[in-house]
Sequence to fold (507 residues):
Amino acid sequence: MISPDQTHRPAGGNIDQTEPSQREAFPQHECGLFGVFGHPNAAVLTYYGLFALQHRGQESAGIVTSNGPGTSFLIHKDMGLVSQVFGQSELEKLKGSRAIGHTRYSTTGTSTIKNAQPMVVDCVRGQMAIAHNGNLINADVLRDELERKGSIFQTTTDSEIILHLLAQPLDNGSSALGALRRIQGAFSVLIMTERELIAVRDPFGWRPLSLGKLDGAYVFASETCAFDLIHAEFVRDVKPGEVLIIDEHGMRSEFPFQPQRPAFCMFEYVYFARPDSKVGGVNVGKIRTEMGRELARQFPVEADIVVPVPDSGNYAALGFAEELKIPFEHAFVRNHYIGRTFLQPSQLIRDFDVRVKLNLIKEMVAGKRVVVVDDSIVRGTTARARVVNLREAGAKEVHMRVSCPPHRFACHYGIDFPDPQKLIANQMSMDEIAKYLGVDSLGYLNVEGMVRATGKPMNEFCLACFNGDYPLPVDPALDKFIMEKRENRAKALVDQERHPSLFTDLK
Fold:
């Protein structure tokens, strides 16, 4: 059973079938932001907020604190999970009533300590720190301009470009808001100055950012699940194109950008956000369950059990099973304590990367017609390995259902699949994908059903990775230029960290 909205690629289209890394096999998380203004335990609250947002990035974590004008910013950041980076001693050193924190997945820039956030500078405007979630499409153009003017960059991230723009002297009537108008793309940003905490959301509203209150203090978070953990009251979402400025006198709102049509990233609902978060005023888990129901209506199948791919496929699979009244079973068991696997014993354990994350309970699937429900298929190699596992366990039939449309186009706004040639649906037709996966039938939820599950109008979303309709177009030549520049800078940064003696100035 094939999706009715398929777009056939040239016959014989192929995708690289070499085993991908975990980073390549799945759509990657973005970054998590958390901020506090006006609470005596700002660092501890930020720690818990980042802990709740750990799913948005697992490469590095950091917190910057301040007690206001006349005090120095205090910072601690490192590679690893939030619980690995921060302990009691680190948090005790981060005194202050204001803080911003960040947990990172690198959509741009290499995964190194230099690129960890928040970033801090001491400039003509005083001390300033920034934490950023998103991806700028004009980052390298701005960077080249700034470098020609004498700016010196320490990292390969988009975020440092924003910091350099903000740190420039006030002249000719320029302002911080004027600097923000120069950046293009997806950005939810927290900025801490000596006097203010500033929250910014791009005019398209690609990335989520919410405002809350706790004991008279203001708090910001990428998702509301962070408010739940610290018992903060959700106030509202930061609006697309809005800049919220908080200081000792209270909070004010400004809209310095040209208005744009809303383009919230649909993949937040499909995959990124935690199911217990409210995004755009709607519970994410409820939307995913409804996506599963829509999928079942479009692609019903006679089967014995419905099996989710945990964790992101759980709610869609539940909705699919409920709609068709098929038993729901957790046949795949997820190992939540993987961490980094430095040893890859490919010669000893076949498909190690797949089995170490999800193991199959063979007795649940043997002799049965199985429907596997996943939220997305990017390259297809991991999905294929799971089908092989099910066949080896004795599954009578294997049917694959996917709770979003096929990914056929690159994302320029913060999701880490920039190369269409690595997307299986870009390189193969639906029939070819089904054959490659080894399934008895394949069904993808179409765009209309996916949007209908949210209860919101279609023109409020960015659907570019599904349909190629980019709300903010990217010049292909400029995109190639940006990617090449990033690759060169990333290589240079890695070389510098591996061989620091080669880059030491001769005395």
